[in-house]
């Protein structure tokens, strides 16, 4: 809008130039220019304003002029318009697009109103129409609405332009469709429980497109349901399940519809026939179990038409050779299991049948084999072998065990077989069986024992053992050595004993083997046998072996020594004195007795000889004559010298008698001499001789202990082939009596033998702890040493510990005693010789016997080294006296 104002100078009547124009319009909505001669143009930019009347002040200011102003009113109105379309009714099928065109013209200047807002509304939907230069147009998709008749209202407006409205009638018709089977099949043949995968195509004919999101359903005698799209528009699928359907022909009705689409339907024919099935085992065709176990039967029941499991079927099993049936239950689809308690059967092989049935399905039968194995067992012996003595009973124990379940087998049948017969073992309980075998049935030897164990449904087992029956142990009781004088018969008694049962063995075969043959021993009875050495056997040493045997007894043998010796003899003087005192020229007669000591009889007709080494008496000087009694011999001779000498008298008889010798001392004195000289000569010489003999006897005999002397004598006798005589020795009672009475002598008590205890003194064995303490005191052992020593003792038997400790203590004490004895070796105790007072008493006795001073000094000097007892013996032998 341009407004021209003129600024006039009223004083001069001219236009005023160079003025400044002001207006009240908002800044930026106007501009002005001076056009000359006082005229100014003001241009208002009113396109931002709506229609109506606007009043603005306009003022002009010029230098040296008064300011001047005026008001101007600007009246703005809307542009006149017209809105129209080509047709007021539009016919269209649903989902087609409608090309809606409207003309919005400017009636003031003509032409299309540019940049106007043109909208169309359809059933609550609004559409914008855009200008294409000649009209306002829009494409309307009828799929946005349902089938029906609608009023489309078109509104056109623009600021400062007249708003116009126009209506159009829209008629939307349904979309025509086609419904068909994709595979072209409208008839199906299936089995009961089978399935049909149904695929149909639902599409419209206008555009030839598949109809999405339609409702497609089916219906038949065994159910109804919906078909679902397979992802491709218009394609719908469903699985028709014929489970439970009886054999027949059925009609399947399928209907498709969708809003704004024409409804369509299809009819299918379903021919349902019997389902073919298969019954197969899960695993092997043979069930292998051990009797007593629970066997698990697993089968797979399959619909072979559809290759799918058959569920909810009825399955049972039965045996053709056993009265036992059971059912199988479904544990997974088409998988059925059942249990078979084999303890209701027996060990063996069985034909097993599984039968499966279901309505509409073939009845199927599966044949299987079940093997119920016998329960594995072991037959064990507690002793692989036994050894008994004949006449004893051997007891064998066998364990019959179920190794599969680890249980003893009871009520089984165990039979044995051996050389002694057959029989059945006795059941002891807990799977243990025993048999007692009497060795009397077989006799000594090694025998195999065979045992078989059996029980229904258990593995048959055998086991073998050995029984060694030993002969009854025996022994021969007989002395090892026998002696007998030649010419005597010797009867040796032999005892044959059974040491196994402590019995005597009678009626045995007893043989003696020696140089003179193999004679049988004479059975006396009660295990006693005798063997006779005849009196005709010569002097010698013989070895005799006794061999005794009896059936089922050990053969025993023993070797003895039989010494046939000379007849033992003894040669003594009749007086018993081996000292003879005579005077020179006197006839001496010595009577000796030669005795057979084996038979206690005198020996007559013996050969007597005399031997004198110094030649004082030769063989022509003596005579021998028989004495007054048998076995006595008188040796006569005259003493030719006045001195002391000895003769050896020897007696013997043949080779069967032991020769004997005896020495007799002859002491010859002068006939008539001075008595004092006789005493001196006789006493002095005799005293010295007796002293020398006493000293010799002491050194050779009495200094040797009595026991040693006896042993030496026995050895000497045996070296001569003689049986030594038993030395005289006190018995136990005498020894104990002597010990007790010696201790009681101080109190003048004497106990006879009948008061001596007959029982051995009870020995109390100290405790191990006390013995260890004693050993520690002796050896100085520490606590650690004792602990280590005690640990070693614990490895010993309890019965051995005390004895071992006592022996160690005894040896330690002996060692300490030896050390002490060695330290005291220099402190020897000398023989207790006579005292001076006792020597004076001896001197007086010698003086009484008539010895002179010189002889007395010699005797006293020799007596100084003798004991009181020795001097008393000497005096008694010399004819003196002893107090």
Write the layout of secondary structure elements.
Layout: E1 2-6, E2 8-9, E3 14-15, E4 20-23, E5 30-36, E6 39-44, E7 52-61, E8 68-76, E9 81-85, E10 89-93, E11 97-106, E12 117-122, E13 125-131, E14 136-141, E15 148-158, E16 161-173, E17 177-181, E18 187-191, E19 195-204, E20 215-220, E21 223-229, E22 235-241, E23 248-257, E24 264-273, E25 277-281, E26 286-290, E27 294-303, E28 308-309, E29 314-319, E30 325-332, E31 335-341, E32 348-357, E33 364-373, E34 377-381, E35 385-389, E36 393-402, E37 407-408, E38 413-418, E39 421-424, E40 426-429, E41 432-438, E42 445-454, E43 461-470, E44 474-477, E45 481-485, E46 490-498, E47 503-504, E48 509-513, E49 522-525, E50 528-533, E51 540-549, E52 556-565, E53 569-573, E54 579-583, E55 587-596, E56 601-602, E57 607-611, E58 623-626, E59 632-638, E60 644-652, E61 660-669, H1 675-702, H2 706-719, H3 732-744, H4 768-779, H5 783-794, H6 798-823, H7 836-848, H8 853-863, H9 868-877
Parallel strand pairs: 10-16, 18-24, 26-33, 35-43, 45-52, 54-61
Antiparallel strand pairs: 1-6, 2-3, 4-7, 5-6, 7-8, 9-11, 11-14, 12-13, 12-15, 13-14, 15-16, 17-19, 19-22, 20-21, 20-23, 21-22, 23-24, 25-27, 27-28, 27-31, 29-30, 29-32, 30-31, 32-33, 34-36, 36-37, 36-41, 38-39, 38-42, 40-41, 42-43, 44-46, 46-47, 46-50, 48-51, 49-50, 51-52, 53-55, 55-56, 55-59, ...
Helix pairs in contact: 1-8, 4-6, 7-8
